[in-house]
């Protein structure tokens, strides 16, 4: 057997006249020893005597006697050797607190489909399976976790399956949750609803331009057409399409503004002798018309 001396360095609130009560828990397998720590000039300490050899876990908890809650916590491990005193120096930080979530699905129209709820925290401190909530025997959706103190963003997710793959029905907005050391924070969540008004304006696509013609001139290939009938009030312009041969698809060659009904196409050198096809479409602010009837012309430069 050996001994274990547990030491906690002095910190600001841990003075002789403080309201703290500090305890040390020594545990291994199912064996547990609990002792109070006494305050000294350089901190708090206690000694466990007659401890079996092996590696033990040392936990130190500081309780505020006035508020009756745990406020500080620290842990480490120590190796106990025969006839020797092992020293465990423990640093205390903010203790964990409890987060309790209660979910009310009464206002959720598709609540009969929900098979699982998920509590998403940021920063993430819960394992995926631990964050899942299933209804209890009374149909209540509740979860409770012991997590590090701090400020979290919390969202509730509702699933219509028992896995999270392709079964998400709803994810709530994030809300703030503050976890204080040794205290319980309860979130009672219910779905929030509002009214959505959708106003739409009918804006049909413009008709196709008409009367498309093509002629070979000294300028190039001149295309001319007439606007769609009726002319849309929001007409923005026209798209000129060209097909270079039968084995290619039509592609947009250029655009022209709404007031222009003429376009000069400048053929490439390798297009001499080719049968070129052209079409024109009209476009407004939201859509584009079908293409006009096609015209074909064999490009031979005017002499």
Description of the structure:
The chain is mainly beta. The strands form six sheets. Strands 3-2-6-7-9 form a five-stranded antiparallel β-sheet, with no helix packed on it. The chain is elongated and about 115 Å long. The chain has strands at residues 2-9, 20-28, 31-36, 38-40, 43-51, 54-64, 69-80, 85-90, 93-94, 97-104, 116-122, 132-133, 141-147, 150-159, 168-171, 175-179, 184-190, 210-216, 221-226, 237-243, 251-257, 262-265, 275-283, 295-298. The chain has three domains: 2-94, Sandwich (Immunoglobulin-like); 97-190, Immunoglobulins (Immunoglobulin-like, Sandwich), CATH 2.60.40.10; 210-298, Immunoglobulin-like. Residues 12-17 have low confidence and may be disordered. The protein contains no helices and 24 strands.
Describe the structure concisely:
The protein has strands at 2-9, 20-28, 31-36, 38-40, 43-51, 54-64, 69-80, 85-90, 93-94, 97-104, 116-122, 132-133, 141-147, 150-159, 168-171, 175-179, 184-190, 210-216, 221-226, 237-243, 251-257, 262-265, 275-283, 295-298. With 303 residues, the protein is an all-beta fold.
Figure out the total of helices: 0
Rg calculated over all Cα atoms:
39 Å
CATH class of the largest domain: Mainly Beta
Distance between the ends: 114 Å
Would you tell me the overall average pLDDT?
A: 91
Widest beta sheet: strand line-up: 3-2-6-7-9
**C-alpha geometry:** elongated
CATH H-tier superfamily of the largest domain: Immunoglobulins
Q: Name the poorly predicted regions.
A: 12-17
